[in-house]
Specification:
With 95 residues, the chain is mainly α. The chain contains three helices and two strands. Helix 1 (26-40) links the parallel strand 1 (15-19) and strand 2 (43-47). The model has no long low-confidence stretch (mean pLDDT 79).
Length: 95
C-alpha cells in the first residue's frame, strides 16, 4: 500500500544533504549547498559518518571513549565550517 508523499504539503521545506568528510572537495560542497539553499529557501543537512576502528570490540568502556573522541572530532569539523567566512572556493576565485 502506498502512502501520499508528504513533501508537497504546506510548510514543507526542501533540504540539501551534504556529506562531510576529510576530502578536499568537502568545503566546496558545503559552499555550494549553502548558497543554493539560501537562493531557493531550502535547508541544509550535514552528515558525518563515524565508524569505529574495531567493530568486534568487547570492552564497552573503550568503545564509549572512542565514540566520545569521534564526536569531539566531528564537532571540531562542524565548528570549522560554521566559523569559515562564506567565500567561494579557491578554484573559483581565480576564474
Amino acid at each position: 500500500m502506498s502512502r501520499k508523499r508528504r513533501s508537497y504539503e504546506a510548510g514543507h521545506k526542501p533540504k540539501y544533504l551534504v556529506i562531510i568528510d576529510e576530502s578536499p572537495e568537502c568545503d566546496r560542497a558545503v559552499y555550494y549547498a549553502s548558497r543554493r539553499a539560501a537562493r531557493t529557501g531550502a535547508g541544509m543537512v550535514m552528515l558525518l559518518v563515524i565508524e569505529p576502528n574495531d567493530r568486534h570490540q568487547q570492552r564497552l568502556g573503550v568503545a564509549d571513549i572512542m565514540k566520545a573522541e569521534a564526536q569531539e572530532a566531528a564537532n571540531a569539523i562542524l565548528v570549522r565550517f560554521a566559523a569559515a567566512p562564506m567565500a567561494p572556493p579557491a578554484s573559483r576565485r581565480n576564474a
